[in-house]
Design brief:
Blueprint: E1 2-6, H1 15-28, E2 34-38, H2 44-48, H3 60-66, E3 74-75, E4 81-84, H4 89-99, H5 108-114, E5 122-126, H6 133-141, E6 144-149, H7 159-169, E7 177-183, H8 190-201, H9 216-223, H10 228-231, H11 236-251
Parallel strand pairs: 1-5, 1-6, 2-4, 2-5, 6-7
Antiparallel strand pairs: 3-4
Helix pairs in contact: 1-11, 3-4, 5-6
Pfam family, one: AAA_31
Protein name: ParA family protein
Domain AAA: 1-173
């Protein structure tokens, strides 16, 4: 099982959209078995898969507390996609973990995921826009990190710091690598072209060749609780995510 974290300290850059589209395409196009972990108390990914319940202590928060994964996984309507849901109770769970000075705080997910190592091809973790202990746990458990970015004003601020944070995780797990930065919600403009040039030529970070275009359908599909790649197969963003998956798998040598 390859574990992949989708991370950015900024909100609204396309983390959940990317995690959901990747999980959906890896299953429907490539027949891979995917576990999607919602690590964001907002629960947007859980809602997309009709697995959001704000009242119950279940899913990812339980994994953080108990170091167990299997019993916290729910089925979705897609045979090849399972989910570990999240809700706001995660915030209380995180506080509880921070108060626990008896046992290690950062290695709970990596230990938990060993239990299901042979049951999935991919585990994709959708993260919230912060660097709390549950995000540290996700990074430590990850083989790869993908950072979605937007190219509008200020969006690239903080990228350098985030990349440094990913590098620091190597002390805790030497396998964790930045796989690449993915430009999402792309609209052509003088500013976005200049930002892209800087990113590709000057940032020193690996940038995926494929960008994800801005498509109105990406917002619309959230109302219907569907991945954009199912809601509108032909829209620009879906086409781009399909090409991105090919690029991602090629990078893997597949
Ligand atoms: N390619 C895109 N085109 C248009 N809207 C997008 C695109 N990607 C994301 N969005 C919209 O932007 C908002 C934030 O995206 P989301 O994936 O929830 O970001 P994050 O998880 O980083 O907070 C959502 O309303 C989403 O539908
Ligand atoms: Mg999100």
């Amino acid at each position: 099982m390859k574990v992949l974290s989708i991370v950015n300290l900024k909100g609204g850059v396309g983390k959940s959209t990317t995690a959901i589209a990747m999980a959906h395409l890896l299953y429907v196009k490539k027949l891979r078995k995917v576990l999607l972990i919602d690590n964001d108390p907002q629960g947007n990914t859980s809602r997309t898969f009709e697995c959001y319940d704000p009242t119950i202590e279940a899913g990812t928060m339980n994994m953080l507390l108990t170091r167990k994964s299997k019993e916290n996984i729910w089925n979705t309507l897609y045979e090849g996609i399972d989910i570990m849901p999240c809700n706001l109770i995660m915030e209380a769970a995180e506080k509880q973990v921070l108060l626990d000075t008896e046992s290690a705080q950062h290695n709970r997910y990596i230990e938990a995921l060993r239990e299901i190592e042979n049951e999935y091809d991919y585990c994709i973790i959708d993260n919230p826009p912060d660097i709390g202990m549950h995000v540290i746990n996700a990074l430590v458990a990850s083989d790869q990190v993908i950072i979605p970015v937007n190219l509008d004003n200020w969006s690239l601020d903080g990228l350098e710091e985030l990349v440094q944070q990913v590098k620091q995780i190597k002390v805790l797990n030497s396998k964790t690598e930045l796989a690449g930065v993915l430009i999402t919600n792309y609209e052509k403009s003088v500013t976005s072209e200049a930002a892209e040039r800087w990113l590709r030529e000057r940032s020193g970070q690996p940038i995926y060749h494929q960008k994800i275009r801005h498509s109105k359908q990406t917002k619309d599909c959230t109302v219907y609780h569907k991945p954009v790649t199912e809601y509108s197969i032909r829209c620009g963003a879906s086409q781009d995510y399909k090409k991105f998956i090919e690029e991602y798998l090629k990078q893997e040598g597949i």
